[in-house]
Every structure is written in C-alpha cells, then in structure tokens.
Design a protein that fits this description.
318 residues, single chain, 43% helix, alpha/beta, 11 helices
C-alpha cells in the first residue's frame, strides 16, 4: 500500500490563483491523496470555487475536503487542516503557488526507501515580481543552519510525517510573519532524519498583496516577535550548540535592522543591534563578533547581498 499524503492549503480571497494551485495538485502522479483546503473567511467566492473544483476532480483515491476556520490567520487555518489530516505524511502549501507533477511521488519514494526518515525537502524556485527567478541555497546536510539563514523548511519546501508536525506543536498562531521559519526551527531542533531532493519541485510566485508584504517596516514588531520565539525554542532545547545557533539568530537581527535602515526607518531598529555593541561586550570573543555583525549591518544597509557566505563561519566561531 502506498502511503496516504495529506496536502493542506489555507486560503483567503485567492479564487483565481487557488485554481492554478489546485490544478497542479490534481496532476500529481501519487495516490492516495487527501487535499484539505481551509478557507479563512474569504468573501470573493473562493470556497465555492474550491467546492466546484473538488466535485470535478475528486475520486476514490483523491479526497478533496473543504473546511472553514473562523479564527483569522494562516496558522490557525493550517492547524485546522493538521488536526483533520488522516494521511501518514503531510505537506503544507500556499494557494498562490504550484508544484511539479511528480513532487509527491518523489518525496514519498524517499520515505519508502528509508523508513526512518522524518522529513524530505526539495529545492524551490522563487518567481519575483520583477520577473526574475531565484533558487535559494539548499544544503540539507546542514539543515538547521541552512534553515536559520535561508528558510530551508519554508511552507512549500518539505513533507514530513504527520505525527512529526503534531509532536512539534503545529503552527504558532501568535505569529503573523516568519511562522514557517519558526516551525521549521522547532522541527529541526530535535535532530530529525532529513533527506533532500536536489531538484526544483515547487514554483513560488511573489504577489503584490501578501501576508508578508513588500516592506519590512510595515510589519515592524511582527518580525521581532518571531525572532524572540526562535530564541525561546533554541534556549528550551537540549542542543549542545545553542551558542552557535543563537549567534546565527543575532545575524538575522542585524539583517532585519539593515532592511529597516535601507527603507529609511532607522527608528525601528530598537534593540536589534545589541549584538553588535562592542561597548557592551564583556569578552574579546563577543567584541570580535560585534565588529563583524556591525560590518554586516552596514554592508546590507547599502545594498550588499550574500554576506553570509563571506562571514558565516566567523560568526559561528564567535
């Protein structure tokens, strides 16, 4: 018997984009599939369109379920779907993106080849608003570091055992931004067995209207809340490399501060640059890390990219 897979999609007022997404799921070569669409209060006919699509495409081995979640927020909708999922394996997806026709088959094959696998991830292709295409760095052999820097376990980027999602506690409904980043950290802190597929199997399309938006400044405070949650996750874990992981989070603090400054809102920086303060540093090691992070801030503020490749090893060593 092939493993049953649950695909969970939260949706809010994405009628036209949702159908493109659903068509890509309907073309998946793997069966059995359970598609769970969780409407989060749409007013544009999205749930009705989903029901109509399901009536056309559902079959004995392809179940389509339309649920509703009144509590606002994609995380609440995802948790609703997770609670209802009956598949042994699960993946979350976004309503404005698409997947390659063999994504689920390839992922399930990896689980079946190595039954002790907890997570299978894959490369993603990001289609930007300006028409450019980007493929984020993909190093599953260094999963936690890659995730902290490049969001390896982004929402659309992996499949896991359903019990693993539930054991991790599901999605943090208090976080409106970077919630997939925070969940991925919790998933990875337990040292799961993870396998990577080195092909782009998902196509992510940037939208002018989205949860994260185009400006960091417009959601100031929300990013910081997720950073704080990740610090909490790391501190509460039993990892022996906590100090290194927290240093990486400090790097993310500095990158966020640089974006605020680049957008002309330096007043939003607040405490984000504390880790760069040489004056507050109590040891030579901390002073050196502060100097490096300060350089990262200024480099990024004035448009520099790819700085982790240049200084990542130094930051981790301090």
């Amino acid at each position: 018997m092939k493993s049953k897979v649950s695909v969970i999609i939260p949706v809010l007022n994405r009628k036209d984009l949702l159908l493109r997404c659903l068509d890509s799921i309907g073309k998946q070569t793997h069966r059995p599939l359970e598609l769970i669409i969780v409407d989060n209060g749409s007013t544009d006919g999205t749930p009705e369109a989903a029901v109509e699509w399901g009536e056309v495409h559902a079959s004995k081995d392809f179940e389509v379920r339309i649920l509703r979640e009144a509590k606002p927020g994609a995380c609440a909708a995802r948790n609703k779907g997770l609670n209802e999922a009956t598949g042994e394996l699960a993946l979350f997806f976004d309503s404005d993106d698409t997947m390659r026709h063999d994504l689920i088959s390839l992922a399930v094959r990896e689980f079946e080849k190595q039954p002790d696998t907890d997570i299978v991830c894959w490369k993603c292709e990001l289609h930007q608003l300006d028409g450019s295409i980007r493929r984020p760095p993909f190093t599953p052999e260094k999963a936690l570091e890659c995730h902290l820097i490049h969001a390896l376990l982004r929402t659309q980027g992996y499949m896991a055992r359903t019990v693993a999602f539930r054991s991790a506690g599901g999605w943090d409904e208090s976080l409106s931004c970077w919630n997939d980043w925070e969940l991925g950290v919790r998933m990875l802190l337990g040292n799961p067995k993870i396998i990577g597929i080195g092909e782009a199997l998902v196509y992510i399309y940037a939208q002018s209207v989205s949860i994260t938006g185009e400006s960091f400044s417009k959601k100031a405070g929300s990013w910081e809340k997720s950073l704080a949650a990740i610090r909490r996750d790391i501190n509460e874990s039993h990892r022996p490399d906590k100090e290194k992981l927290l240093a990486i989070v400090s790097y993310r603090d500095v990158i966020l501060a640089a974006h605020y400054a680049k957008e002309g809102n330096s007043e939003l920086i607040g405490d984000l640059l504390d880790s760069t303060s040489v004056r507050k540093s109590k040891t030579l090691k901390m002073k050196l890390r502060g100097l490096i992070l300060s350089a990262v801030f200024h480099y990024t503020r004035y448009g520099g990219r790819g700085v982790w490749k240049m200084v990542g090893n130094l930051i981790k060593s301090f």
